[in-house]
Write a structure and sequence with these properties.
Distance between the termini: 6 Å
Helix content: 25-40%
Mean pLDDT: 96
Strand order of the largest sheet: 4-5-1-6
Largest sheet: 4 strands, antiparallel
Number of strands: 6
Number of domains: 1
Strand content: 35-45%
CATH architecture: 2-Layer Sandwich
Radius of gyration: 13 Å
Shape: globular
Order of helices and strands: EEEHEEHHE
Structural class: alpha+beta
Low-confidence stretches: none
Length: 101
């Protein structure tokens, strides 16, 4: 199994929305991918609270896949690409790690 973790830092405002609004949109869009991308075994998205210390990331994606090939298939899946395009418009930072467990 592969754990795929991604953390995002968001702009205070982007696409006409606040950071909190965009975080909730991203959460909804990412969690919806479970229905359209069968290689996703598990996916949870967590939004950091408004009172989080400065410098913390705003969102974490915690997902699991059977193989690295599945992670790669997920990355190029058209539904994921659409979500990634939106995230690219509202994020200021990204950190990721993939590991076998």
């Amino acid at each position: 199994m592969i754990k795929h973790l991604v953390m995002f830092t968001l702009a205070d405002t982007a696409e006409g929305k606040t950071k909190t609004e965009n975080a909730l949109i991203i959460k909804e869009k990412l969690e919806a991918l479970k229905e359209s991308i069968p290689v996703i075994r598990k996916m949870n998205v967590f939004v950091n609270g408004d009172n989080a210390p400065a410098g913390n990331h705003d969102i974490v994606l915690d997902s699991e896949f059977d193989t690295m090939d599945d992670v790669k298939a997920y990355a190029v899946h058209p539904e994921h690409v659409k979500v990634a395009e939106f995230i690219g418009k509202v994020r200021t930072g990204r950190a990721a790690i993939d590991y076998e467990f």
